[in-house]
Design goal:
The complex is a heterotrimer. Chain A is an alpha/beta fold. In chain A, 37% of the residues lie in helices and 25% in strands. In chain A, the strands form two sheets. In chain A, strands 6-7-8-3-9-10 form a six-stranded mixed β-sheet, sandwiched between helices. Chain A is globular. The two termini of chain A are 33 Å apart. The C terminus of chain B is likely disordered. Chain C has a single domain, classed as ABC transporter involved in vitamin B12 uptake, BtuC, CATH 1.10.3470. The longest helix of chain C has 31 residues. In chain C, helix 1 packs parallel to helix 5, helix 1 packs across helix 9 and helix 2 packs parallel to helix 4. Chain C is mainly α. The mean pLDDT of chain C is 91. The chains are: A alpha/beta, B mainly alpha, C mainly alpha. Chains in contact: A-B, A-C, B-C. Chains B and C meet through helix 4, helix 10 and helix 12 of B and helix 3, helix 4, helix 9 and helix 11 of C.
Chain lengths: 234, 320, 287
């Protein structure tokens, strides 16, 4: 059974659809990236999966259970987390408080998980008492991913986690995603940097104009001349 | 009830409904069409009433003036004074958020009331001013009241037609476009602030006119009359009940709510004396409750706003 | 000189009462993006709730105080459940007019139950203490101490409890709070509880300083809003400075103008702030 299955969804913010029959899936343990030109609906797919954009037609299954149009506060309890591209930390809260908020619904002791997140992102431990709003872009991204990890989700969705970061920081973030993936957490990511993302991921989808056009392993997609043409021309 | 008694009851009822219709139309220009949140209607209402009073009453040692000027001059003066007050407030607050405008207008309402109470040289303070003349004072009092009702109704009609016309003109279309999507309107080069200011001033002038009509109708004004309940809240309930954005709704709402308000007053007055103060306190509660029920069940009011002629495609606008 | 100090003391007392109202208002605004125009009347309700225990059951005011705070919280939550919760889904500006109506309803209800006349908790005159030529009523010290304690308690709640942190998180970014899994409705309920309790406290202190009257809270709405805006609305900590500034300015103005214009001073301060620094003195949000 796939971890996540998106079956032909149509939807948008009301009015005209932005998604025109998107198909995609994520298997347990996979890193899957969505690439595509601007305005293809990449971010919208994620928001639709997470209940932030209404789905008019089609179904979304998570671990075989239907989650179509559920509220995000419910989806997050089922074991999926989502990190938006922007405004993804609580700026006036400290790093530690940000992470604690990630564990809001946990009633048990989560200090172990907190220590674990600090292990994955050591810079956060040193700055745990600093307001998140004062951190650098890369550190903020770490806080956001760390916060999403506090509930130990099975699937983590990241919307352009490396946008606007310097090359070294991008390397670091990708490396950490790999580390987290090795722990058994699957990823669905939107990436602007197609080459980099495809060479990194297990599988990829190319989206244009609200549809998923091609699905293949990363290297195969990269080698496909149609894909590159659609990407650049779409 | 004999016929003359009924008419004797109906004439003031309709006159006041007409005055409230003017206020409600004024609020509709501000809130219904420009989305400006004014909860200081009392201020403009009072400024209009006091201006016409000072202009049209015979000279008195108790307050400024009077100047013994004719009725129409009083009405025009009331509109000008309210408009000037609106200009002042608008320049400061209109580029701020809705809640800042709201709190600023509450403040103006309270300050105007403080001034009315405390500046006796201007307003005769809490004792108020009596003997405000109605036009055509050569007629018998009964005929005069009837003529005054007709004047009020004519003014309601004139205000209604004038606003309808303005709103169909490019000015009104831009106004609605701004209310729907401020960003888009300013992107096509419309000076949002200026349009808002104009709508705020126009609405306030109409409210001032309503205040003037009130003063001449009642013949006596005091700061009491301009408390936030009678002068602000009732008007809001009227507009929301009638249907904000719809001028006919504004008039219908004024009529219906004023009837309801009067009936509750009628009933409260028939209570045994020991219950009368309590019954009087309950009236605003009931009107407040009515507003909440309308907001919960039929927020668009009795008459819906007619579909505006210029709005972008909803989906396209919010698409990204 | 003594006169100025005396007025300063009155200003500090008034300022602390305004502070308590403004902190709650600001907290509500930060989380719900909603200017609660019924806040003044919630103060009134709190003051009268305490009267139920004091006059009705013969309790001392310090025992009635926590009960009235709890009552204020319950009233606030109830209003939210019945009205605002349903209206939140529609345009936020509808909430403004609804809260204006709620304020009026509360005022009428108070007048309906207790009548329009002024009342006091304890009959009789309190003799002021003479300290270095300054007259200080014991009640003033109680009010000041009470406000300081409540503000410290609020601070500890916001900084160190899970719910308090969630409130700050929601005030930062409501959408992110939702997708993080914070139970926003529960946080909103707690926010109303705090806002209602703080308003009730402010109302009781106001009644101790002056007297109970159905319009007492409505008349405080302007200074309370002025304080909240001055402190940067949505920033409870800024509201403390805002409240003290407004209170002291109002009392100081009586040295120059008629006391009748005290609330006009609050308004003037607010207008100046809106013109020069719409985000408040301490940089609150402007949108």
């Amino acid at each position: 059974m796939s971890l996540l299955e998106v079956n032909g969804i149509y939807g948008g913010y009301g009015g005209a659809d932005i998604l025109h029959g998107v198909e995609l899936r994520v298997e347990p343990g996979e890193i899957v990236v969505i690439i595509g030109p601007n305005g293809a609906g990449k971010s919208t797919v994620m928001k639709a999966i997470f209940g932030l954009v209404p789905v008019r037609e089609g179904r979304i299954l998570f671990s075989g259970e239907e989650i179509t149009n559920l509220r995000s506060s419910i989806i997050v309890r089922r074991g999926m987390s989502y990190v938006p591209q922007e405004y993804n930390v609580f700026p006036s809260l400290t790093v530690k408080e940000n992470l604690e908020m990630g564990a809001f619904i946990r009633t048990d002791d989560f200090s172990e998980q907190l220590a674990h997140v600090f292990e994955i992102f050591p810079p956060l431990k040193d700055k745990r008492r600093q307001a998140a709003g004062l951190l650098s872009g890369g550190e903020r991204q770490m806080v956001a991913i760390g916060r999403a990890l506090m509930l130990t989700p099975r699937l983590l969705m990241l919307d352009e986690p490396t946008a606007g970061l310097s090359p070294q920081v991008v390397d670091l973030i990708f490396e950490r995603i790999r580390t987290i993936n090795d722990l058994g957490i699957s990823f669905l990511m939107v990436e602007q940097n197609a080459k980099r993302a495809l060479s990194f991921a297990h599988r990829g989808y190319l989206m244009t104009m609200g549809r998923s056009r091609f699905e293949d392993t990363g290297p195969n997609l990269l080698a496909n001349p149609d894909v590159m043409e659609m990407f650049l021309g779409g | 009830m004999e016929l003359t008694g009924l008419i004797g009851y109906l004439i003031p009822l309709l006159t006041f409904a007409g005055i409230y219709a003017v206020l409600s139309l004024g609020l509709n220009v501000q809130w219904g069409f420009a989305g400006l949140f004014n909860i200081g209607i009392a201020a403009f209402f009072a400024v209009g009433a006091y201006t016409t009073t000072i202009l049209t009453t015979p000279p008195s040692p108790n307050y400024l003036g009077g100047f013994d000027l004719p009725f129409p001059v009083g009405l025009i003066g009331a509109m000008v004074a309210s408009g000037l007050l609106a200009l002042l407030i608008g320049l400061v607050t209109l580029n701020l958020r809705a809640d800042y405008l709201a709190i600023a207008t509450i403040g103006i309402g309270e300050i105007v009331r403080l001034i009315l109470k405390n500046e006796a040289w201007l307003t005769h303070g809490v004792r108020g001013i009596k003997g405000i003349p109605k036009p055509f004072d050569t007629l018998s009092p009964e005929v005069q009241t009837l003529v005054y009702l007709l004047i009020v109704l004519a003014i309601v009609l004139i205000v209604y037609l004038a606003i309808e016309r303005l709103l169909r003109a490019p000015w009104g279309r831009v106004l609605r476009a701004i209310r729907e999507n401020e960003l888009a309107a300013s992107a096509v080069g419309k000076n949002v602030l200026r349009f808002r200011l104009e709508a705020f001033i126009l609405g306030s002038m109409i409210m001032g006119l309503g205040g003037a009509l009130y003063a001449h109708s009642f013949g006596f004004i005091s700061p009491e009359a301009f408390d936030p309940m009678f002068a602000t809240f009732l008007v809001w309930v009227m507009l929301i009940a009638g249907g904000s954005g719809n001028n006919r709704g504004a008039i219908l709402g004024a009529l219906v709510i004023w009837f309801i308000w009067s009936i509750t007053g009628f009933l409260a007055n028939r209570m045994p004396p020991e219950l009368m103060t309590q019954a009087a306190a309950l009236r605003p509660f009931l009107i407040g409750l009515m507003l909440q029920i309308i907001l919960l069940t039929r927020p668009e009011g009795m008459l819906k706003e007619k579909p505006p002629s210029v709005t972008g495609d909803e989906g396209e606008r919010r698409g990204r | 000189m003594i006169e100025i100090l005396q007025v300063l003391i009155f200003g500090i007392v008034l300022g602390s009462i305004i502070t308590l109202g403004a902190v709650g208002l600001s907290l509500l605004f930060g989380i719900l993006r909603f200017a609660n125009f019924a806040h003044g009347d919630m103060m009134t309700v709190g003051a009268y709730l305490a009267l139920v225990f004091v006059a009705g059951l013969g309790w001392p005011i310090y025992a009635a105080f926590p009960m009235a705070l709890a009552g204020g919280a319950v009233v606030a939550i109830a209003i939210d459940r019945v009205l605002y919760k349903r209206l939140r889904r529609t345009a936020p500006v509808i909430l403004l007019i609804s809260s204006f109506g709620v304020g009026l309803m509360l005022r009428s209800l108070v007048q309906f139950i207790w009548g329009p006349q002024s009342l006091v908790y304890e009959p009789g005159i309190q003799f002021p203490l003479e300290i270095f030529g300054l007259r200080i009523k014991p009640d003033h010290l109680v009010i000041l101490a009470g406000v300081i304690i409540l503000v410290i308690l609020l601070h500890l709640f916001l900084q160190y409890t899970k719910m308090g942190k969630a409130m700050r998180a929601m005030s930062d970014n409501m959408d992110l709070a939702e997708i993080t899994g914070i139970e926003t409705e529960r946080v909103i309920m707690w926010t109303w509880a705090l806002g209602g309790a703080l308003a009730a406290g402010a109302g009781i202190f106001l009644a101790m300083d002056t007297r109970l009257q159905p319009f007492m809270g409505w008349n405080m709405l302007l200074p309370v809003f002025a304080a909240a805006i001055m402190g940067g609305i949505g920033k409870p900590y800024g509201a403390i400075a805002g409240g003290m500034t407004v209170g002291i300015a109002e009392e100081m103005s009586t040295l120059f103008f008629s006391p009748a214009y005290k609330s006009a001073v609050a308004f003037a301060l607010m207008v100046i702030i809106l013109i020069v620094r719409p985000t408040g003195l301490f940089g609150g949000r402007s949108r």
